[in-house]
Each structure stands twice: as C-alpha cells, then as structure tokens.
Amino acid sequence: MEKYYRRYKIIAEPFNPEILSSILWEVDIKGISEEDNFLYVFASYDSKVNCDLIIKQLNKLKTEDLVENFTVKEKIIKNK
Hints:
By secondary structure, this protein is α+β, with helices and mostly antiparallel strands. It has one domain (4-78): 2-Layer Sandwich (Alpha-Beta Plaits), CATH 3.30.70. It has helices spanning 17-24, 51-63, and strands at 4-13, 31-34, 39-44, 69-78. Strands 2-3-1-4 form a 4-stranded antiparallel sheet, covered by helices on one side. The radius of gyration is 12 Å and the shape is globular.
C-alpha cells in the first residue's frame, strides 16, 4: 500500500524560521525543513493538520506583529 503525506510550503515576511517553527510545532506536525527563504512543514496524510490550522497558527504571529504577511501552499506527496 502506498503511503502519502502532506507538505506545506510556508513563505513569510519577514522570514524568521525560529519564530515560525516554534508556533508550528504546537500542532501535530511530523517535521520541518528550513530552506533559504521558506519552510516545508510535513504532516501525516490522515492528520488533523490542514491549511486552515496552519493559517490559524500563523495569524497568531501576525496579530503579534511578528510577521507582516504569509502564504501557505499544500501538496500531497507520495512516500518513496
């Protein structure tokens, strides 16, 4: 049986991976990969984590003026 997982690409301005990661670890994610100017966040396919939940977490940072804006893109990835 093939397994799938969800990958979220998160771009934020200003890009502060430490602050972004700290709030994202509060939800049931499996991992984070830091790239040059964005993060990949990984979650199980059947996890409760979804785009709306990630946006809700990032909006907390926006409310505290720690990020000005952000985008979240979800992709379903087949586990190799």
